[in-house]
Design goal:
Number of strands: 14
Mean pLDDT: 83
Helix content: 25-40%
Low-confidence stretches: 1-41, 46-51
Structural class: alpha/beta
Number of helices: 12
Order of helices and strands: HHEEEHEHEHEHHEHEHEEEEEEHHH
CATH topology of one domain: TIM Barrel
Shape: globular
Distance between the termini: 27 Å
Radius of gyration: 21 Å
Length: about 400
Amino acid sequence: MFILGDARSDWADREGGRRPPTSTLYCERVTRNVVGTNGNSVRHAPGLQSHAADGRLHDGFGRVGTDLRVSLTDRCQLRCSYCMPREGLEWLPNGNLLTDEEVVRLITIAVCDLGVEQIRFTGGEPLLRRGLEDIMAATTRLRTVSGRSPETALTTNGINLAKSAVALKAAGLQRINVSLDTLDPDRYARLTGRHRLGDVIEGLGAAARAGLNPIKINTVLMRGVNDDEALALVRWALKRGYQPRFIEQMPLGPQDTWQRDGMVTAAHILAMLRKELTLVPAHPNARGSAPAETWIASGAEVADGVVPLIGIVGSVTRAFCETCNRTRLTADGQLRSCLFARDETDLRSLLRGGASDREIADTWRVAMAAKQASHGIDQVSFLQPARAMSAIGG
């Protein structure tokens, strides 16, 4: 287990009395130690000053990166067509992946030096990461500038969720998104290449019992494949207290498989749902930095005490680029300022080359300052990133 600000004995135990090179930076460069409610030491962020001088992740368009997406692995048990080829991909060599300690160190820098407030763990499939609970626990022992633990969330395919939901909740995970594109077992097998729908359903139930709420269901609708299930998925999810979310298919799968004219758009999804449901905007005045436009639904059976919310993420046709507050870290330690970026900044080499936290934070700020105004999918010059979704992190 990681204990921030007081890990010397833990490092010595695990390293035979010898601390790894990064332990001095990670364990001893502590801005301020305070005792959390569980008695563990926590690292507290320094006070922030104003605007560009406050040390946060400002870009050139007035946006501030307060949401960090952390990919923990590029591996996944499924072969969803919009994510990777059916034969799979060549996985990253283990030596290229960040270690648990390196992941925690970068998250610590993000929260304590750069003002990050939300952390979402992704993959590939993050539940395949053996050290996930320890990484989660270390993250939730941090404190943001406001004195709170970072908001933590996780996106998963749900296959291993039944085994890990209780442990994840105990480690501090607050919210969870589960990918589910169909309720039909045979169709699920065709879409993913695996007969695992029962495991996903079981995992959702386990997450609900563990208190990982709200549970959001992420669905990618594809024309002529599963778009006929939109209403059925909404009714099924709301009845069980889950929040259905539909995400426009993005050009992040195998090269040349995404077609703009074949995409099921946000407008089309809304039209399908409105055939049987009444939808009222949950946030009529502003969407803010949230990727989803959220609607309150009526006309469907809803679990007791649950607000019937439906989210639609129009990543392509209703992009939220102008308010985007995200920064991304790949499983091999590459920094990306946008999901669709073609440029990356190598933080792994800095970590392993002995760079200080301040040097890493400064590099991160420079990378964020160069963030583009938008992903550019609507432009003729748009080029799909070389990495597939599973290697970037959702």
